[in-house]
Amino acid sequence: METPLTIKETRKGLLDKKFSAVELVDKYLERIDEFKGLNAFLTISDEVAYKEAKEVDKLVETGISKDQYPLLGSVIAHKDLFMTKGIRTTASSKVLESFIPEYSATVVERDKKAGAIMIGKTNCDAWAHGASGENSDFGPTLNPWNKEYVPGGSSSGSATAVASGMSLIASGTDTGGSIRQPANFCGVTGLKPTYGAVSRYGVIAMASSLDSIGCFGHTVSDVETIFDVTKGEDGFDSTVKNANDQKPKDKLKIGIPKEYFLGGLDREVEESVLEVVKVFRSKGVKIVDVTLPNTKYAISVYYIVQPAEVSSNLGRYDGIRYGNSRDSFGAEAKRRIMLGTYVLSAGYYDAYYLKAQKVRSKMIGDFDKVFEKVDALIAPVSPTAAFKLGEKASDPLKMYLADIYTASANLVGIPGLAVPSGFNQSGLPLGFQILGPRFSENTLFALGNMYQEITSYQPKLAFK
User: Fold this and answer.
1) Which runs of consecutive H residues, i.e. helices, occur in 283-431?
2) What pLDDT sits at residue 390?
3) Of the residues 93, 136, 154, 199, which is catalytic?
4) pLDDT above 60: residue 223
């Protein structure tokens, strides 16, 4: 399995009887066992996987129309923030070490209804607090391209599972870059949708005004298919709305934000993104220099708003109704609870939280103004390629700066698509992100597909 299947290839192979869904599950479980040292999975749902695979094989035998079951036979891994009925859901925290939910998240239900087969729950930074995958209470996930490096966080296990062929696709959450950054570090495609495009119902909350529910796949086409399955109102999350599916323009204009290419950006990362810009220019896409002046405040604003909402959301875990006591919180969770409680406390609310929200509004204005001139933006995902395990673990401020290019999209609620673009001299993946106005996912997909078609992109598996 050197070249991974795509969703379309999986569906076609099943319908053409080239293989069965049960055989697919066999292969993925073998792969999970082979690479269990990466610590990508916390729970393997093999019984559920075989049950769902048999249901898929039965559907193939009885016959289905070409529009039914768009994820037919696609093996999926869910980040362990997603509630899965009857299957352990821990948020990678000892607080919920033995928690078994009574219901499944909307996204889990929609994926299953579309024919996906759930193979397990993936490791992540506990409560999604992290940019490296090192903050799980059950041990760090490793980068499948080089086990001495981090896979990115917080959706570390999901990105690693897809990149190493342990799952075809995976779910994730993105609060400040937690899909785009691990996708970038692991060489896969990752989508952070518009805030309010996909329901958060049944997903353990981190920061409620920032959380976006997205996915990982090998290609832009894969994540587009998953998004079409999971998007839209469900009656449970009041922030979700059914957006009009606007077709992308024939002639697109891309902006390059100058603030994203200033000091601190690794040379190989910058050169890789600028090569991507050349690819788009060769296809007649107009490239425009733009400015987002309030970008310099993104990390400061994010690390006030996010811990404030974290401290509020984690308040429900008191060890009384369910879960273990608060003594089980890890160091990073305690750090964010203290930061958040501080900025919300009497005497500091106006000085910190209220001021941060005002600057957030200024940032929204910046992006609105830029999107009057261009259809999308291209930017780096991270200042560097994947960094070594432990390199930033002792310096939280240095770790927080890893979100510098991703946090803005969450603060302003816009979609972002992370696309792989090659490897650096050390053999670690490189990539870029495309950002667009709210509910412009179709434009991002059009640009992402264009890039992968022009470059004849072929996904590769780590650990061939």
Assistant:
1) 298-313, 331-344, 355-370, 396-400, 407-412
2) 94
3) 154
4) yes
pLDDT tens column, 226-243? 999 999 999 999 999 998
pLDDT of the residue at 3: 64
Kind and range of the H or E element at 161?
helix 156-163
Structure tokens at 70: 């768009």
Strand partners, 432: 419
Q: Which of 178, 187, 212 is nearest to 412 (CA)?
A: 212
Active site residue 178: yes
The mean predicted confidence, pLDDT, of the chain is: 95
Both tokens assigned to 284:
């007649």
What is residue 126's DSSP assignment? G
Please give the model's pTM, rounded to 2 decimal places.
Answer: 0.96
Strand duo 75-79 + 117-122: pairing: parallel
Q: Do 317 and 95 meet the contact criterion of CB atoms below 8 Å apart?
A: yes
What is the DSSP code (8-state) at residue 238? T
The answer to whether residue 79 is catalytic is yes
- Inter-CA distances, 190 with 32, 124, 236, 272, 425, Å: 21, 15, 25, 18, 23
- The predicted model gives 303-313 an average pLDDT of 96
Q: Mark whether 154 is an active-site residue.
A: yes
Output Rg (C-alpha) for the chain, integer angstroms: 21
- Convert 17-31 to b/e letters by CB count within 10 Å (16 or more is b): eeebbeebbeebbeb
CATH topology of domain 7-295+361-454: Amidase signature (AS) enzymes (3.90.1300)
Q: Which of 104, 178, 212, 408 is catalytic?
A: 178
CA count, 13 A, side-chain hemisphere, 441: 26
The identity of residue 28, as a single letter, is Y
**For 133-144, what is each residue's pLDDT tens digit?**
999 999 999 999
pLDDT value of residue 1: 44
CB 89 within 8 Å of CB 100: yes
What are φ and ψ of residue 22, in 5° steps? -65, -40
Picking from 274, 282, 279, 252, the residue whose alpha carbon sits closest to that of residue 376 is: 252
Q: Return the DSSP state at 77.
A: E
- Using alpha carbons, list the distances in angstroms from residue 204 to 106, 107, 114, 305, 368: 12, 13, 23, 18, 30
pLDDT value of position 399: 78
